[in-house]
Predict the structure.
Amino acid sequence: MIKLSDTTKDLHTRYLSVLMGPSHPAMHGTIKMDLVLDGETVVDIDIDPGYLHRGFEKECEDHRWNQIVPYTDRLNYVSAIINNVCYAMAVEKLLGISKDIPERAQWLRLILSEISRICDHCTCLAAMTMELGAFSAFLYFIKVREWFYELLESVTGARVTYSWTRIGGVRWDIPEGFEEQTKKAIEKTLPVLKEIHGLFDKNRIFLERTVGVGVISKEDAISYGITGPFLRATGFYYDVRKAHPYLFYDEVEFEVPLGENGDTYDRYLVRLLEIEQSIRIIEQGLAKLPKGPVMIEDPRLALPPKEQVYNTIEGTINHFKLIFEDIYVPAGEAYAYVESPNGELGFYIVSKGGNKPWKCRVHPPCFPIMAALGEIIKGHMVADIIPIFGSVNMIGGEMDR
Amino acid sequence: MGLETIFGESWITTKLEFFINWARKFSLFQYPFVTACCGMEYMSTMCAHYDLARFGAEFTRFTPRQADLLLVVGTVNHKLAPVLRKVYDQMCEPKWVIAFGACASTGGFYDNYAVVQGIDKIIPVDIYIPGCPPRPEMVLEAFIKLQEKIQKEKLTKNE
Amino acid sequence: MSEIVLEKLKERFGEAVLEVHSQCGDDTALIKPEALLDVMRFLKDELGFEMLMDLTAVDHLGEEPRFEVVYHLKSFSRGWRVRVKVRVPEENPEVDSLTPLWKGANWYERECHEFYGIKFRGHPDLRPLLLYPEFKGYPLRKDYPHKKRQPRIPLIKPETR
């Protein structure tokens, strides 16, 4: 394969084989990379994932439909709402009730998905810029993220893993004062983003480390199956929210930033501009939010209100059946897809008519990116691996499931 | 350290213990073995809002040889178990281990072929932090408890 | 949404297409395993399906043939999506590999092989991806027990729950 000794030169050289990972300082989760180095240049690389494989699919086959929602949270744990929403959409597609979900529930799913997207992009850029040496940017991004975590906590009760959607709607409505809190958080965020632009966009050191580093062409990206900011940074326009609008994305106005060269700098800038577009969507969503219920009114899917549970026998039996046996989904298969911050997240669900899925497959957006990473990194130096890997935003929970 | 063998169990050893433990507990160098979702709360705890640096545990040493606190954050599966054992073995005494999160303490709600049911099946653990993921305030309380535990340690070995 | 794809497939391949349906709005075609590479080449080159979105397998324990390999394809230029399925029996679960057509198929097939045991003919390097080399068995098959653990290093305490 690769010969480890070059006897044609006067001074015999050998390639050095080094392991990077699975526990390494880049806060991106565990992954091992076997590098073969010629001095500082990477000659060959073999990526070895699977150090966070937690058996998500096997667990799904053993749990009931609504019990799987907490497991979906832990897939892409930086933007957990989006996983919940995609799973709920897939099961609702199988049930055939996609059009009957109340409008308020769909708008709320949209608004909180965008807040989650901001949290994800903040975390990715925080880790990437910290590894390039800019520790202050890390603190600024995490500060911004804290404000949005407080917003999500006021709705769902948790900061990182929410388990907020149910099949047929969402669990909690937004509390009083959510809109003012969101507006305040957005007001505080915009100056921070402006400062970040000022710190990095024309920074000589940042440009030298990221421009021209980790380039991938459009054709390669499509051949590998890559979607999301990674693909958009190469200049190819594909965003699930515009191509196949779901929830109410066709009623909000936003732009999709596109890159040119497909290098690390473009990926950084695409993510930063997407944060600003998400803020636009949240403002429009809050203005258009209608009043109404947040859960479908179907006794086979939704828990009855407590007054009925405690006072009528039908309510008690309904509650009992739903808690102990959960919902029954007719036999069939469905594939639902959303735009997650890394790309197209898909859930492929096969049901045989019971109260547990027969198969629940997640299509992880960062899996094809990691498959392509080997080819991208070859030829670069070891120090270039850090910004490239930082711009990939590999989330271990999603990659390994 | 041979002073405690010269003086035995006298008041000098007790004072020495007090100062050594005081120095150790307020200068913990941590090695964050971050794997999964708890890493998000770990990041929040380290940063400005819920500052961990005010407890002395400021700098993360990214090599086990220079660290004395191993923070296992997130799920450990059987593929990762030998790596964790190796990292623990590479650390010098005195060393402490905190199991951060439900998955590190007992395996969390992943009871299947892949996940180790708690890192205490691989390495000895001092403090367990429950939660999925635990709030940053719980992490700060765990640090305070660890500091109390360190303060009570003895230099002489007579148990 | 893209039933025209199913019609073109039936027109071109006739009896290699065993079944088509559009349940829940997803257009699906079940084809014979021998025709897989030709069908995929037709879909990629002539109908413009540039991206292989996903590759997975389903274990229908109790039915014959037991395994079903599922491919999701996406066409950007025409906005179509299609799902192609192939059934393989338990005694010899083999399909053709799609690595000559799409580079991304490499890792998807490695993962499918280590979890279900399905072999991909012509794959350059079919070794485990997410599991460790000492792991024996195919965990996502329905007859692999849910909690059967295979520790890599000796544990200092027994794992009891």
